[in-house]
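Data availability (excerpt). The following record was deposited with the supplementary files.
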Amino acid sequence: MKAFRFAMHATAAFAAALLVDIAPAHAGLPPEIDGQALPSLAPMLERVTPAVVNISSKTRVRVRDPFFDDPVFNRFFGLPNLPRERVERSLGSGVIVDAKQGYVLTNNHVVQGADDISVTLTDGATVKAEVVGTDAETDLAVLRIPADGLVALPLADSTRLRVGDFVVAVGDPFGLGQTVTSGIVSALNRTGIGDGYQNLIQTDASINPGNSGGALVNLHGELVGINSMIYSPSGASVGIGFAIPSTLASNVMRQLIAHGEVRRGALGVEVQDPNAQLARLLGLGDARGAVVTRVASDSPAARAGLRPGDVITALGGQRVADARDLRSIESRSRTGATLALDVVRDGRKLALSATLTAPDLAHAEGASVDARLAGADLAERRAGASRAEPGGVAVTRVASDSRAFANGLRAGDLIVALNRRDIAGLGDFERRLAQSGPTALLTVIRGRSAYFVALQ
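Predicted structure:
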């Protein structure tokens, strides 16, 4: 069984439809809601569906050829040194959350690295979208489109959801057109499904490729989640889908609109899950919590008095069952927030508190660092609270007609190594680039994947 993020790529695999005789189980509908008979979901959906849009993106990927990209070969035959490209296309969905400003909430993986993004409304009109900000760790992105006559969905408080609540998924599966499916909330606070920060809603409402970024709504027509992934052996729905809770999405969205990025608070610790042996050695009643393995100097954790070997069992009043829980709570906590810590040290319980900080950033224009980076803006990013947030040099902006863009860099990239050696910061990056010769090999993290980018 595998978890799939499913922005649908328009490849030959989707050109043929495979029809199979499967009778999926569907949740029944309640006879009434708020004391009123509910013979049909149509009145609610008439309000919801205009706010759910189709998103189409194009990404130009540079293709290297061992012959035609060889300067000696090209010079011998009098051929120009031109970059060779292919265009990758993907389809997904999105939700209009602010009609006045034209803000659309979707998944990061739907628009990740895209050079051109189009949004199609329910009336068939297609408009160009600009990226306001993206966050790979929660797989969320905010777009902006022209705001005339748009309809937005109200956001519900997803913390009030209960297992068994009825929900409806709206999106564009397989590029068929807007589709509605219904089901229930099967589970809450699911983690460990993929990478990044998670406390996902699980639902049996049918979700398929192309539904990414679409709406999961309650029976009042309020947004409770952004559909994000499925758990399936085949890539199609088997009744186990996941959505990002609206409360988390709302927090990320506000930060992306305000800053273009998510400014997460960090404790400044590295942690691991406790096993049965560690639990005995550390005086734990059971193997629950996040074991502190390192405390960064002059960090919130150090100032709070945390030590290696401490076990964090709660942060900000929320139970911490493992290292992933700790990272998830950190990701939802703003910079400057003061949070209570429940800690077990040598079998004794301690109550501490820490004020979270954010990694420091130093900024530079790409051209001032190296001519091959002209057109890009760079920011030094220190490592976060865990290995899930590596340090390096972040690419915050790239002009589409620039040398940096032609070299394959995109906004949101994180450069973590040069010629396969980790970089210590912006200054180290600049010094080593100056010594790298005509071609430098960058290791770039883009979303949840790592790539080599040849800088020339």
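Summary of structural features: The first strand starts at residue 2 and ends at 5.
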